[in-house]
Amino acid sequence: MDNTVIVIGGGISGLTAAGMLAQQGLDVTLLEKENETGGHLARWDRLFPDRKKASDVLDFAMKGLNNAKIVTGVTITGISRHQNGFTVTSPLSQYTASALLVATGFELFEARKKEEYGYGIYNNVITSADLEEQFKSGRKVLTSEGKTPGRIGFIHCVGSRDEKVGNLYCSKVCCVTGVKQAIELKEMFPASEVFNFYMDLRMFDRHFEELYYEAQQKWGVSFIRGRLSECSENPDGSIILKTEDTLTGKPLKMTIDLLVLLSGFVPSGGTRGISKMLGLQEGDDGFINSADQHSQNNLSGIEGVFLAGALKGPISVSEAVADARAAAAQVTCYISSIAVTHD
Amino acid sequence: MIKFNLFVLPFSLGLIYIVTSIIMHYYRWIKALPAVDKVKLSAGIRTPSKVLASLKEIFLEGLIHRRLWKRNPLLGYMHMSFAFGWFLLIVIGNLESRVYHGAYINAPYYPIFLKFFIHDRLVLFFEIFTVPAFFRFIMDFLLLFVLSGLALAWIKRKQSKWFGMKQTTRHNFFDRVALTCLWLIFPMRLLAESYTAGYFHGGGGFLTKNLGNLLVMITPGPAELIAYFFWWTYSLVLGLFFIMMPYSRYMHIPSELLLILFRHCGIQPKKWGSSFSDLEVRSCSRCGVCIDACQLNFAAGISTIQAVYLIRSQREQFIPDHIAQTCMLCGRCQEACPVGIKIDSLRLIKRREIGSGQVADFSYLTNTHPDYADVVYFAGCMSHLTPSIPNAMEGILKEAGINYLFLDRDGSICCGRPLMLAGKDKQANELIEFNKTLISQTRAKLLVTSCPICYKVFREEYNLPIRIQHHSQYLLELVKEGKIALQSQHKRVVYHDPCDLGRGGNIYEAPRELLGKISDLEASGKDRADALCCGGSLALMSTSMLTKDKVTLDALQSLLAVDPDILVTACPLCKKTFSKLSKTEVRDIAELVHDAIPGRKIRIAATVKDPEAVIS
Amino acid sequence: MKPGGKRQIWDEYQKEIADDNYFYVRSCVRQNFFPGAEKTFFRYMKQLGRNVVENPSHTTCSGIGYHSDIVPFETAMTMVARQFALMTEAGYENFVTSCITSFGLYSEVLETWEHFPEVEEQTRIHLRNATGREFLKPKNLAHASDVTFKLRKEIADAGRYRLVNQDTGKPIRVVEHIGCHYSRMFPNKGVGGAEYPYVLVGMIEDWGGEVIDYPERRHCCGFGFRQYLVKANRGYSISASKKKFDSMKPYKPELILTNCPGCPMFLDRWQYAISEMEGTTYGENGQGIPVMTYEELAGLILGYDPWDLGLQVHQVPVEPLLDKMGIPYDPEKKFLDIDGNFIGKPKSPSFLKFY
Amino acid sequence: MIDFGYTLTRDRQLDFDRGDFRYLKLVKSLEPSMDLCIGCGSCTATCSAGGFTDFNIRKLHTVIRRGDPESIKAELKKCMFCGKCQLVCPRGVNLRNLILAMNRAIEILG
């Protein structure tokens, strides 16, 4: 028995947790399937509600990692358990540790599955992630015809709160993301009209509601309560939306130049894979259940296996960081406890 | 003896001009009066008492400026020295001229320029005690009196703060010219008379004579010519001033005289404007007192919409909507106005013009045929957002065993005043008629309301054949009649006068007397006629909530200066508005009375916010 | 438009369609609406060497009553079961329906039995008690348009004409309209799913035409059973169709292709009604937009005589389309029946161009 | 024209692209706070007129935002102007002036 820990997943949760553990003198190895760490955050431009650069948050997380071992491009093929802990095998090599911290996170709902929204079919239908990449690239956001969009629509709850795609849960952060991106587009194109089509706006965290207020007051972003039913394409490539304006009780038809789908969260492939290998508890929604959502939210129910981040369901970056720290604390306690029992 | 000189021409022409112009103005105003008012006027001027009263007021306000004295002694003195001093100069100047001039009638310019024509020297010692010397002394004294006012006026322009005025009005071109003339008139007179006296070694009193000798001594050149030059300028500025007068703020002087007469003849401002309003507009002296009185100015920094600016744009034939709409109609400026202009009605006239084409449709209102009762209680729309008030009232009414009917228990039909405040009188009348029917159907002898807004309109527009009381009056009455016994809670309270109850309904004492019985009432800085508006006024149309909050916070600061246990008011709207921002509990007088009924469990006045404010 | 995106979806909704030996059940209404259609199906299936049988004693599937809320589901299932029994007795296992609503109902019934075997058992008992018949469930359930879709390339190869304008050489612009009951209820039971059905698109593309998408493509034709059958609702029915026409007009369609009994009926007849009610026509210079069933179109492609296909009973004249495609026809023969007797010529409409 | 015994009904759908936004432009300039509405409906809930008739303030200015002012012209006349709506609005929308502004817009634009 030693003080080795393997963190699976190099997103913001994994990085933060690994950093904490390393700083407490544990021997940490972080395994990431991609060739780069940073996960979704690495592809994101700015964060709600204060528009902080995602890269700043990542850089901060990376700071703590000096003496942690980071291995990228690792495809985990198996995890075996033995009296000294766990052995994680990949085609190239093996890693052993006394404890595992699983932080394999989420991936965005594949918007294509919502066929009637025409993602991947209509040129001017993109996802929030696509938009964020454009922001990051610093390019102006243009329609597929290379024009500046005069009217932009955001569709909330794409792949969330939708029995028709088998996801009953709320992805929580799309609401405020839509508001944030709407503001960013208004900054880019002050003359454009921006509409948010929503069912409810769940501004659950500090300064979110204020951001919503700012979007209305300062930027004149419009909010229409109604869910997109279907859309189709005009000869000029613009999109026709069909929704209900539930506040006037009338069906509404609107032509827009650019449609942004706010894709929800689903458990990542990594999460599904690792959960199979370890036999983690999967909830009806496919996310991983912790031992107890209230008091043991970082315990997996399997001794030595801990959970951190969005593999347990949709969360914001700040929540992910906090959860990762909590998980790290749990792991440290565990390591010291087994150290005691084995002395 | 020479009785004429060319230089008197400018003055004489100016005089002729101004006199004719004033006569024409008067004629136009009187001619344009509605028939009813014409009758009132002709009756009025044939009633000595009214004429006397007018003359008295003209003397007190036009010359002595009593109201201004009350408000600001410095300003009062300044205006008095000018008006009264000048008035006396003319009167006594005339008398003096008679000493030298036997003729019964003489040219108007003669007394004005007397010292140019008369400059005999008094040599012998005893002559100091002669009539001419006496007059010279008086005249010089008066001149000094006026000049002192002039000095003050000059300082006021430069240093308005010294007068406790934060803001003074902005002048237009004619005002500037007229003002310059006005400021020059008496210095010129001083110089002209002094030089003359100095050159001829005679003709002046203690001031002009000695100053004259001094000037002649120190200034080189032909004193006679210099004197002559100053006589010319004196006459010129006088003439120019007269000619400028009709186009400048100074027209307010003759206008106000007529206005006072009109008022004493009982002529009232008209809803849709009249020559009376025009006269009021002309009577504004643009002293700027209204700017200081306005909370939007000193609490919210809005300084473009005050009475004086409304009146000016009215004079310029164009009132921008925002000036008409941005006002709480709290009546503070009206209260402060030295000329007593009914500025709120002027503003409402403009509001009625905006959207005068609009109509309402209240056909959905159906008569509910209310039950009979002795007393009909009308809570008012706002009270439905502060249920604690109607609840308290019902508790008291039950306690007092009154046979009452809560007319608007199931939602109010608005009293109509909010519509009137928006200038929609036609629409308001439909509601008024409807409510009148309802009220009369109850056969009640007394109408009690909890809302000063309703109270004002009930009294002024409903002309119901029954008594109308605000609950603060009614509750006091109940106490006096012994219908309810109260027990003081000895809470330190400050009372806030709601605009429509105080300035609007002239009810100041009833609530205070009532509070005196049930609490320890403390005085607050600004109260009664000078009370501040809570900022929630329904009259304030196009102003953001943030601005309104500024007004509220400022009012709270002044009201809570003595840190009372409870801030008491008698208006649901005031209560709601204050509750939003007050750290101290805000309650309606009715609630306190209810709590003061012995045997009732007393609510602890400790909550930071009014619970009702949270509920509604 | 990203064609790749649609292809991807079409690939995901591949359905298995039997290649030969079909048991065919007819539609209640089609013979009256477009008498040539079903006949033509048999004709080209024969020409393509496929074996299709039917049983004259088959009845309505009762879907029309079921969707008009006058036939309870139990009854409907029993009648469906009887149709299956006829198939079983004939020794066939590939069931082909002519009617979209039937197809929907058969799918619904099979799906119900899938999830509730006890219901299937109950139905077997009902059928036994009522008719003494037994049945096997079809191995393969397809709509006739599915079959035609499967054979579209063979039809194209055997064809003499193509959906191409002979003068300009440009492809004919076609809008397709899929019956609501084809794949709305069970996307995976239709070729190409519910949102972008491929069944007609495939035919149009392989026969040389150009498919055009338009905003109200998904909108119902307006039949909606109750909406039309109850006269009080008929204005609702025609308004729904008008909504489609208004939406497709700017795309200048030259043909509307359908695979449902009701749709062609209403898309065709309502064009006439609308023109008479408010003078609006939707085709170029006063013509309407011709409406066809996939069978009729297949017939034209294969070079059958237009009048044998029953195109003369269309309300919207098809001649302009025939001219474009360069298909010869004898105007004299338009109103003659098979035996050459004159069947009478309708009087010309007030607005719609008539030939 | 033939009467078949049934009529073509106009589409209920709000066609945003054909909307009439002159009213919105004017009203917004007169009362910018209208943008802050979150459709909570407290204004309608407390409305004095709403207590007696189906008068719905929230709907009225929403409809203006959707470029469909026709429907409100008759409705607006029902307002009693008491100002309760303004006191309950959680977003500080200056509702009384908003109604005033809508009336103005209709007066000016017809």
Secondary structure: elements and pairs:
The complex is a heterotetramer of chains A (343), B (616), C (355) and D (110).
Chain A: E1 4-8, H1 12-23, E2 27-32, H2 39-43, E3 46-47, E4 52-53, H3 54-63, E5 69-72, E6 78-82, E7 85-89, E8 94-97, E9 99-102, E10 106-108, E11 125-127, H4 128-137, E12 151-158, H5 174-188, E13 193-198, H6 208-217, E14 222-225, E15 230-233, E16 239-245, E17 250-256, E18 258-263, E19 265-267, H7 269-278, E20 305-307, H8 317-342
Parallel strand pairs in A: 1-2, 1-9, 2-5, 9-20, 11-18, 12-13, 12-18, 13-14
Antiparallel strand pairs in A: 3-4, 6-7, 7-8, 10-19, 15-16, 16-17
Helix pairs in contact in A: 1-3, 1-8, 5-6
Chain B: H1 8-32, H2 35-45, H3 48-64, H4 66-71, H5 73-100, H6 109-112, H7 114-117, H8 131-158, H9 173-200, H10 206-218, H11 223-244, H12 252-264, H13 275-283, H14 289-293, H15 295-298, H16 307-315, H17 321-325, H18 332-336, H19 343-353, E1 375-378, H20 388-399, E2 404-406, H21 417-421, H22 425-441, E3 446-449, H23 452-461, E4 467-470, H24 471-480, E5 492-495, H25 509-518, E6 520-522, H26 545-559, E7 566-569, H27 572-581, E8 585-588, H28 589-596, H29 611-615
Parallel strand pairs in B: 1-2, 1-3, 3-4, 5-6, 5-7, 7-8
Chain C: H1 3-12, E1 22-25, H2 30-33, H3 36-47, E2 52-53, H4 63-66, H5 73-90, E3 94-97, H6 100-115, H7 117-131, E4 140-143, H8 144-150, H9 152-158, E5 173-177, H10 180-183, H11 199-206, E6 210-211, H12 226-229, H13 234-248, E7 255-258, H14 262-278, E8 291-293, H15 294-301, H16 319-325
Parallel strand pairs in C: 1-2, 1-3, 3-4, 5-6, 5-7, 7-8
What does this 3D model show about the protein?
The complex is a heterotetramer of chains A (343), B (616), C (355) and D (110). Chain A has 343 residues and is of the alpha/beta class. Chain A contains 8 helices and 20 strands. In chain A, the strands form 6 sheets. Chain A has a 5-stranded parallel sheet with strand order 5-2-1-9-20, covered by helices on one side. Chain A has a 5-stranded parallel sheet with strand order 11-18-12-13-14. A 3-stranded antiparallel sheet of chain A has the order 6-7-8, with helices on one face. Chain A is elongated, with a radius of gyration of 22 Å. The model of chain A has no long low-confidence stretch (mean pLDDT 95). Chain B is mainly alpha-helical and 616 residues long. Chain B has 4 domains: 8-32 and 65-247, no CATH class; 276-353, Orthogonal Bundle (Fumarate Reductase Iron-sulfur Protein, Chain B, domain 2); 375-477, Rossmann fold (3-Layer(aba) Sandwich); 485-615, Rossmann fold. In chain B, helix 1 packs antiparallel against helix 13 (275-283), helix 3 runs antiparallel to helix 12 and helix 9 runs antiparallel to helix 11 (223-244). Chain C is of the alpha/beta class and 355 residues long. Chain C has 2 domains: 17-144, Glutathione S-transferase Yfyf (Class Pi), Chain A, domain 2 (Up-down Bundle), CATH 1.20.1050; 152-333, Rossmann fold. In chain C, 44% of the residues lie in helices and 8% in strands. A 4-stranded parallel sheet of chain C has the order 2-1-3-4. In chain C, helix 14 (262-278) links the parallel strand 7 (255-258) and strand 8. The model of chain C has no long low-confidence stretch (mean pLDDT 94). In chain D, 51% of the residues are buried. Chain D has helices at 22-30, 42-46, 57-65, 72-76, 84-88, 95-109, and one strand at 14-15. Chain D contains 6 helices and 1 strand; from the N terminus they run E-H-H-H-H-H-H. By secondary structure, chain D is mostly helical. The chains are: A alpha/beta (343), B mainly alpha (616), C alpha/beta (355), D mainly alpha (110). Chains in contact: A-C, A-D, B-D, C-D. The B-D interface holds B 325, 354-355, 357-362, 364-366, 381-382, 384-385, 410-414, 418-419, 422, 424, 427, 431, 536, 538, 541-546, 573, 576, 616 and D 30-31, 33, 46, 48-49, 51-53, 55, 74, 77-84, 87-88, 92, 94, 96-97, 100, 103-104, 107. Strand 17 (250-256) of chain A pairs parallel with strand 1 (14-15) of chain D.
